[in-house]
């Protein structure tokens, strides 16, 4: 994922060099960190006649919030080994790096060389040194890995913050560039906008490919079995998925249906403050134990069916301690990441079940405001000190709370079931079943959708009649009904709204409203 971008650089594309025989040739610097003359011929570079080119660097990190099944495969579907380098490989690398150190300066005392090389070996291990630096800037502190500085030479406008790509290029990592004649100053390294090549590899970009949800589910050229299924089979998958969700939240089918629509939600278009396709849901347990069982069950299930998923645990201590908002550090010219800097399409599970009464400081208040704004407007306001920058996001949000949530999602639904061992079934399914659910969600959330003109008139008339009988119904409620009808249609594999689906949507929504009304009455008594 592109975590930070930098200003364009001016680099030497080609430079004349004069050999020992006086012959003039060219040394090329494009797709290299630096231009070098022909060492064998003792060639001298003539920088005054160099030809310059532009390139744009950006800082990339491993894709945050990837579910375990998505991490286990590369984007061509081939299994990859995510383990640390073997002991023999580490030993060979250590010997090679020590040799590089000894070649840097023969006058440096051997003891200092050994101490410096040991420091370098430690720094070359991303899990032991680089990740601890502020400039590493990982959104999720429990998910770190090897970062890279990528330099794009062509089509540089195509790359934006938080995009995820497959990058192919020429990798360079040169530990010998570290100066071992002086002691390594960790503070100086951490203050540098870009860490040295010995810590942060460089990739000269040749070409790239944006990653799509199906890239984390299907192997290369593997057909999508869900796309060719008949309506009856799709209906069966839908029913099975609702049942599986229901099993994990106390056998509550109504709440399971809303969670399914939440899983399918995706912003299809933005028209002012109206977000077409966006739906957030709040599931409320009737006790703290009940709520925590629900969030644990959903967390386990979501991580098996969603390629990009992140659970955000909300506590007073966490809110007050670390900012979730990305912020610009002008002294380092770097973007300090926050937990809300995630790739598009990441599904967020907000766990409010551990939120206890307490006092929020300035950081905590800003975090709450940022989460509320993100849910309602699907924007994250990055802190650039003098002004916020609006970054549109597409984060479906499921909130689980004990009672009414601090946040304001589109739909709230109480789960009245008293928890027992049998009502919270988190049985592991077969991999093939999980895969079908993944494909179903990935495919149907992206279907084209339309409403025929004649039916649109009928919908407006039904809204007018509903307002006559119930004056509390507002324009926002009609927008919610349209969103629910849209997602209800897509969940059935239907791309055009029908009168039958509209009636089903209203019936389900009125059942939710009735349950919430009873819930609030019980709370007030």
Describe it for me?
The two termini are 51 Å apart. Helix 6 crosses helix 12. Strands 1, 2, 3, 4, 5, 6, 7 and 8 form an 8-stranded mixed β-sheet that branches. A 5-stranded parallel β-sheet has the order 12-15-18-11-19. The protein has helices spanning 68-71, 87-104, 110-124, 186-191, 231-247, 253-264, 288-305, 316-321, 362-377, 431-444, 453-469, 475-491, 499-524; strands at 2-5, 9-18, 24-28, 44-45, 51-60, 148-152, 165-172, 202-210, 269-271, 274-276, 281-285, 309-313, 327-329, 334-336, 347-351, 379-383, 388-392, 397-402, 411-415. The protein is α/β, with parallel strands linked by helices. The protein contains 13 helices and 19 strands. The longest helix has 26 residues, at 499-524.
Count of extended strands: 19
| Portion in beta strands | 15-25%
Question: How many helices?
Answer: 13
Backbone structural class: alpha/beta
SSE blueprint:
Elements: E1 2-5, E2 9-18, E3 24-28, E4 44-45, E5 51-60, H1 68-71, H2 87-104, H3 110-124, E6 148-152, E7 165-172, H4 186-191, E8 202-210, H5 231-247, H6 253-264, E9 269-271, E10 274-276, E11 281-285, H7 288-305, E12 309-313, H8 316-321, E13 327-329, E14 334-336, E15 347-351, H9 362-377, E16 379-383, E17 388-392, E18 397-402, E19 411-415, H10 431-444, H11 453-469, H12 475-491, H13 499-524
Helix pairs in contact: 2-3, 5-6, 6-12, 12-13
At a glance:
The chain has 525 residues and is of the alpha/beta class. Helix content is 35%, strand content 19%. Residues 76-90, 96-124 and 178-184 have low confidence and may be disordered.
Characteristics:
eight-stranded mixed β-sheet; alpha/beta; five-stranded parallel β-sheet; 525 residues; 19 strands; single chain
């Amino acid at each position: 994922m592109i975590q930070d971008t930098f200003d364009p650089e001016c680099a030497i594309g080609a430079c004349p060099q004069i050999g020992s025989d006086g012959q003039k040739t060219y040394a090329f610097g494009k797709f290299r960190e630096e231009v070098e003359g022909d060492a064998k011929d003792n060639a001298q570079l003539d920088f005054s006649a160099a030809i310059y080119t532009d390139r744009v660097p950006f800082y990339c990190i491993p894709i945050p919030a990837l579910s375990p099944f998505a991490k286990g495969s590369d984007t061509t579907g081939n299994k990859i080994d995510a383990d640390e380098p073997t002991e023999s490989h580490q030993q060979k690398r250590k010997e090679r790096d020590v040799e590089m150190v000894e070649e840097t300066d023969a006058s440096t005392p051997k003891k200092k060389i050994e101490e410096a090389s040991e420091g370098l070996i430690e720094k070359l291990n991303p899990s032991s040194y680089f990740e601890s630096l502020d400039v590493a800037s990982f959104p999720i502190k429990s998910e770190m890995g090897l970062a890279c500085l990528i330099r794009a030479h062509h089509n540089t406008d195509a790359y934006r913050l938080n995009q995820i790509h497959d990058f192919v290029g020429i990798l360079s990592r040169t530990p010998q560039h570290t100066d071992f004649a002086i002691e390594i100053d960790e503070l100086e390294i951490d203050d540098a906008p870009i860490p040295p090549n010995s810590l942060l590899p460089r990739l000269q970009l040749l070409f790239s490919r944006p990653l799509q949800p199906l890239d984390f589910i299907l192997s290369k050229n593997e057909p999508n079995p869900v796309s060719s299924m008949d309506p009856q089979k799709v209906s069966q998958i839908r029913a099975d998925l609702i049942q599986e969700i229901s099993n994990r939240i106390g056998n509550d089918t109504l709440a399971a249906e809303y969670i399914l629509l939440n899983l399918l939600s995706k912003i299809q278009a933005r028209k002012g403050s109206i977000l077409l396709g966006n739906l957030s849901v709040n599931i409320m347990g009737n006790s703290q134990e009940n709520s925590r069982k629900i969030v644990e069950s959903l967390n386990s299930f979501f991580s098996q069916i969603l390629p990009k998923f992140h659970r955000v645990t909300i506590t007073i201590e966490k809110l007050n301690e670390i900012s979730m908002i990305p912020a610009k550090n002008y002294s380092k010219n770097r973007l300090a990441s926050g937990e809300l800097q995630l790739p598009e399409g990441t599904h967020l599970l907000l766990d409010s079940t551990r939120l206890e009464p307490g006092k929020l400081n300035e950081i905590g208040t800003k975090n709450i405001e940022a989460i509320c704004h993100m849910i309602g407007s699907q924007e994250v306001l990055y802190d650039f000190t003098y002004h916020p920058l609006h970054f549109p996001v597409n984060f479906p949000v499921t909130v689980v709370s004990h009672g009414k949530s601090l946040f304001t999602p589109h739909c709230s639904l109480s789960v009245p079931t008293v928890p027992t061992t049998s009502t919270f079934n988190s049985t592991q399914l077969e991999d093939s079943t999980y895969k079908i659910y993944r494909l179903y969600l990935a495919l149907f959330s992206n279907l084209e959708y339309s409403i025929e003109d004649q039916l649109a008139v009928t919908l407006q008339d039904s809204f007018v009649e509903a307002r006559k009988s119930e004056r509390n119904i507002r324009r926002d409620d009609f927008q919610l009904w349209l969103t629910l009808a849209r997602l209800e249609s897509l969940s059935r594999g239907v791309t055009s709204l029908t009168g039958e689906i509209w009636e089903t949507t209203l019936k389900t929504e009125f059942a939710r409203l009735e349950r919430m009304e009873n819930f609030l009455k019980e709370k007030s008594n």
